[in-house]
Every structure is written in C-alpha cells, then in structure tokens.
Give the backbone structure.
Amino acid sequence: MLSRQIHSCEDARKLARKRLPRMVFDYMDGAAGEGYGEMQNRRVMQDIRLQPAVLVNVEQRSLDVAVFDHESRRPFGVSPMGMCNLSTPGADLMLARQAARYRSPVGVSTVASTPLETMIEVAEGHAWFQFYFSGDGKVVNKLIDRAQVAGYRTLVVTLDVAEVGRRPRELRRGFKMPFRIGVPQFIDFALHPVWSLSTLANGRPEMANFGGQHGSFDRTETRARADWDDLDRIRQQWKGNLVVKGVLNVADAVRLKAAGVDAIQVSSHGGRQLDSAPYPILALRDIRAAVGPEFPLFFDSGIRSGEDVLKAYAMGADFVLLGRSMLYALAAGGEQGMGKMWDIFSDEISIGMAQLGMNSLENRPQALLPHGLQYS
C-alpha cells in the first residue's frame, strides 16, 4: 500500500507528484510568482531552533489543546482548502471523518467539493466554514446564513484575496475551474490513468456550494472593494466565533482585535498570494507581542512536520492549521495516506515534547534563532 511509503510530508509530496496530473499537482503545490516567498518561509521555519530540557518527567504527555469552547485531541486541525476532491475522490469527507474522530476542526472552504451542510454533519460539528467576499457581496454573503442554519459555530473570513494571486505554474498548465480540456490537458490526464479513471468514475469535482438556487461563483473575480465596513457588517450578522484569516500586518491585527473578531489566523495563504509577503512565522511572533498573551492566534503556512507545529506554538500560536501536507497524503494514499500523515504529525509532536521537557502545550516551547540569522 502506498501509505506504507509515507514517513514524512516530503514522501507524500513525491508520491502525489507521481499520481496526479501535472495540471492538478501544480495547482495544489504552486505558489505566487516563482515561489520564492514560499521557499524562503520554509527556510526561516527550518532555521528556528527549539530549546531542549532534560531530567523532566515526561512519561505522560497530552496533545489536547483548548480551541474556543472545547478540547481538540490534537494541537492541529485542517485549514480550509478549495476543491480538495481533486486530490482523490471523497477527500473532503475523509477530512471531515478525521475531524470527528479527533474533535479537531476542519475548515470547509467556500469552494469546497462537498456541500457545507454535509461537511458539518460528517464532522459531527467539528467544522469551521470559510468565507470569501464576493465581487458584489450578494451571492456569497448568503452562505453565511446557510452556515448558521447548518449549525456552524465558527466562521473564517479570508481577507488576503483582494485579487487572486498570479501563479505561473497554474497558468502554464491551463488550470481552470471547471476544467477546460484541450490537447495538453487530455495528454496529461491520459498519462495519469489511475487518477483520471477514479475521478471519471466518481464525477469530476465541482464547487458544491453553488449552482441552482445558490447562484454561481468565480474564483478569479475581484474582491478589491471589500473594506472595514464589510467586516463590521459580517460581525453583526454572524453570531458565533469570527476568525479572520490571512493577516501578516501588526497594525491590521491590532485593529481587528479592536473590531471584535474572536481570533486571527496568521497566514500567507501558503505563499499563494504575494511572493514578496513577510515571513508568516515571524509575523506571528510580532503579532503576538502586539495583541497580548490572551488573544487567540491561529497559524498556517509552511507547516511540514510536527516540529514545525511546535515552532508555531513557540512563536505565539494557540492552534495550528495544516494545508498542503494533508492534500499530498490524500493524493498519495487516500484516507489511509491521510491517516498516516496525521499520525506522523502526532508522533513528531509527542516525541518533540519529550525532548523539550513538556507534558502539554499549556506552556509554550522556547524558540531560538541562530546567531547571525536574526530575522526582523
């Protein structure tokens, strides 16, 4: 089984690259510009060190953490990602079942491949709905009401997509949603028959929250008119937890806290929006210092291992959301592959905590930056 070949995120990525058509893999794996920003963020993440401690009784270690009003059985969840079923048929539901199993939130994207109502039911309530502004603010705003009726208690508003980032890898492959099949794409699919046949048998992935009475959605449309007044309206409309995702600016974070949001998700959108964006892991540190120790901060971007999760906690995160690592594992080995990756992260965190002298994540690990690499 392919899942037996997965021992790290990079193993899963290599397997996903072999199995997926290049058009799909480059959509999943690509970043803005030439990917320099994503690469540099990974480098900074790798440069961060964690301070070990010895002769601490760490025989009993807990991976439970509090997220809003409940305990998650893992210090990580899954960030909202569009069109997950491109990785493998039924990927959304696989993630939802894992969320239910561990009481850990799964983000349900506006452009998910599975209806938002189905996702929260399968996740047994452990799902957060992610919302994009729409160009005219009408069609997509109705999703907020749908999410509240469906029982969602947390809304994630993504703010770093005023315009969809320019991703040359997608453009070179002709990626469109829905697919537009020309000769290059036909050849690409033919060279990856396992993925193509399974996708054909299960029906091509669509943006399941749209169509019919629910209108349509254009992932490339401008959202440039959104402003603070729009956020105020959403805060008034949404009665549950409001998380704002895609924040890298300290001044924005301070203003968002004052505006009444319940948490901020520090994120560079996985490097998919602005190639020259600040390093999100360092933005996390600076935002934590600005908003104080009690305000909830979540983090995603560049997390590829359990030790990366610990580094995010050390830099100020209260919870971590995984992205590409889960998609790689789903593409590589389906639900078993995803479960294997989940266990890898869990084991790496637990082993790392033992080395750091930690019984739980109630106290943060200590992060160090190497001499001569004092990033600012």
